[in-house]
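Format notes (please read before filing issues)

Several people have asked whether sequences and structure tokens are stored in separate files. They are not. Every record keeps both together, in the order shown below: the sequence lines, then the token lines. Line labels are part of the format and must not be stripped during preprocessing.
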Amino acid sequence: MHKKNIPLIVGIALPFVLIAVLAAIVYIPSLFVNPSHNFVYTYEDRYYYDGSYDTRYEVENGKIVVKDIPRLQSEEMKVTEDVVHKGNPPLYMYDVKHHTTHKITLEEAQAMMLDPGPSSPDGYSVEYRYGHDGIFEIFGSSGNSSDYYLIKGSWQ
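Then the structure lines:
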């Protein structure tokens, strides 16, 4: 190998090295997220114009119960029927053995004994996180992003 070929080799290899490093940064943390308990959750889109449900869920004595959400009625702010979905928000169960999520019915969820705590017995919780677009947030942002994450400590 001649010394004059080193810049060519670096120029060809550097993009592959950067891709491998970025892939490791993205995927290695997910290798450490291994909850041992299935969990039930619900998800509601946070866009205002999609509306919201008129009920919510709570866990009482280990069982899921449906609670009505009171709506404010005033002359200044009227809630129209087209922004309120009738019925209950959908329920989902995450299966840790198969790493899959599937929709379940309220009756299926009510048949389960649920832990009302903010996290599972093995320390995992689902959190809503808000962030910025851009590369490492140093080159500016074109917008913001947010999503739900499975968290244990600082891992997501």
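For reference, the curators noted about this record: The mean pLDDT is 77. The two ends are 44 Å apart (CA to CA).
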